[in-house]
Amino acid sequence: MRLPSRLLWGMVALVLLAAPPCAHAQLQPETHTAERSVQAAFAEGFDRPLPATRNAASAQDTNNGRTPRGALWRSLAVPGWGQLYNRDYFKIPIVYAALGGVGYLTYSTNDSYLTHRRAALFRLGQEQAEEGEPNEWAQFESEWQTVRAQFGGDVSSAQVRDRRDSLRRNRDLLIILSGVTYALSVVEAYVAAQLKDFDVGEDLSFSVMPAQDGVATTLRVTF
């Protein structure tokens, strides 16, 4: 018996409409299985803690028994010895340049202070000699001539004392700065020795996982 063409095409259309849900029902478990496989692969390959930069044993071998305390005491004993102990050789010239620069400024300022102090005494003796008393500070005449040339002429003892006091304050500040520079070199050697033993450990991990919009990265820190 021959079926009408309209009825035949209607049956074909009905089969085509019913086919996709069935195919989707069959492929859906396979799709989920594939997604789980990809996630497992990513988890196995990337969800691993970053290796520690240096554990205690390797740090001990690398530093050959060097400790932060050893660097501290050596820096206190001799400037730059702590940096030499840490094998930070490029820091040694920096330490000595800083200490040498501050030390030179302290020495020159103190020398100028002493010159002005003696010149002030000589000028005070001159002022007293003008009133008929002998200048008991005559041995400081050379210092007075030096300061007089700096001022460009005769000045009073009060003016010389003012500059003397200013030089004394600057000298005291430079002495403090010298101590601070020395202390910073000691702290730097100690901190550098501590960082040489720095260990990230296994509390820090990095992972890459698939996400709906692509690939997502995760940083995890455990306290």
SSE inventory with pairings:
Blueprint: H1 5-46, E1 48-49, H2 56-63, H3 68-77, H4 81-85, H5 91-129, H6 141-151, H7 157-196, E2 204-211, E3 214-221
Antiparallel strand pairs: 1-2, 2-3
Helix pairs in contact: 3-7, 5-6, 5-7
Description:
The chain has helices at residues 5-46, 56-63, 68-77, 81-85, 91-129, 141-151, 157-196; strands at 48-49, 204-211, 214-221. The chain is mostly helical and 223 residues long. Strands 1-2-3 form a three-stranded antiparallel beta sheet. Helix 3 packs antiparallel against helix 7, helix 5 (91-129) crosses helix 6 (141-151) and helix 5 (91-129) runs antiparallel to helix 7 (157-196). 15% of the residues are buried. Mean pLDDT is 76; it is low at 17-32 and 41-57.
Name the descriptors:
single chain, 223 residues, 2 domains, three-stranded antiparallel sheet
What structural class is derived from the secondary structure elements? mainly alpha
Number of beta-strand segments: 3
The largest sheet has its strands arranged as: 1-2-3
Kindly report how far apart the N and C termini lie. Answer: 81 Å
Provide the succession of SSEs. HEHHHHHHEE
Uncertain parts: 17-32, 41-57
Helical content (DSSP H or I, runs of 4+): 55-70%
The figure for the number of domains is 2
**Biggest beta sheet attributes:** 3 strands, antiparallel
Strand proportion, as a percent range, falls in 5-15%
Give the rounded overall mean pLDDT. Answer: 76
Number of helices: 7
Specify the overall morphology: elongated
- Report the radius of gyration as a whole number of Å: 42 Å
